[in-house]
């Protein structure tokens, strides 16, 4: 396979820009690029890397984009509390869910945000439900980490149903946070498509027989189901609502130094009809709605439905990629660990996402070392320039995969492009900066490699070509400023 045609010129642009500092540097150079590289090297070289020094370094370093980020999971529980209070809602004392004035049967056992905040024990307990906070302290009777993590999403949606303005406010909060840590682009999984259709007859037929779109009966089944979807008046209404939400929420958010884009997505833990109608709507929206640049598949990959329907989902992606070849997909795949699922479930997920579903990017890819076709998948990802989005904190918490067990070096060692991302910084209570600190302190990538990871987040984003070129030039400008500051600091101290 040849290099991915669309990204090749951009990689060349970045490679041309990258050595500028070195080319201009004098021999035994004291130029900003070399001084920064040397400064960084001193931070990661000791047996125990200088974590505080790396925090300062990566807080200031331009990081390009965060392109694997879930909107609701990126906001902190404190943000939600503020809105719950403003909206005149309460928190349930029994399960910490949001109670609105409409929940007339549940108004008794509630606490106001003000009283919650003033009750230290209750407040601590609230945060353990709404995020991973204090999990490592064994503060409460523990859920398994994957259940703890994914359960938090149960809480988030209700406040947005109360007042849709919080979508915009949340996006502005994420923008402010991004700019504060020198991130210039967010590609966030915003909301799932508004339309989904349940059809139990389709569900049982889709799960039986040959699951492959090369099979005539299977293809006919998908064709006729989609015909029903497109004839449903609700479909157009919901797409219209989705478009309005996207347009009103992102209006005026982009500026000279910041770009926001969305992915639509569908949950892998729904019946086949709900999944397929949602996935079709997601592709349709990515095609028709400005600002929506891609499609993803989300939720716990180890749940029984996700495992049982995995091959079916990949065929559904393949079918829709035929209809919408220009729509790009980033797919959560291989977010699994040994012992979490039976061994045979670790054998094929990334391979199928790449070779069947046509993923343009892989999210997580943690179980690659167990896959039967790992060698050819890695070669394919290298040659087709299909990057893996690495989420170190999330993988450590949900899967217990960290340090030497994490496959990030397997990917970089195989020549697969790598992107560093945050996944759910609100739930994990982390940031993109902390992801880089972990990466550098654990795996000691060189400064040039780290810089390439930052550039990859633009090169492999789903921005248009001209937008990418502008974003890369901005990133290069930011690096020049950054290296100037670090070099100055290193010289004076
Ligand atoms: Zn994710």
UniProtKB/TrEMBL annotation:
The Adenosine deaminase domain extends over: 290-472
Q: Name one GO biological process term.
A: adenosine catabolic process
Q: Would I find Aminoacyl-tRNA synthetase among this entry's keywords? A: no
Q: Does the keyword Cytoplasm apply?
A: no
| Annotated signal sequence range | 1-25
Q: What is its EC number?
A: 3.5.4.4
Q: Name one Pfam family in it.
A: A_deaminase
Keywords, sorted A to Z? Hydrolase, Metal-binding, Signal, Zinc
Q: What class of enzyme is it?
A: hydrolase
Give an example GO molecular function. Answer: adenosine deaminase activity
A cellular-component GO term for this protein: cytosol
Query: Family, per the entry?
Result: Belongs to the metallo-dependent hydrolases superfamily. Adenosine and AMP deaminases family.
Q: What is this protein called?
A: adenosine deaminase
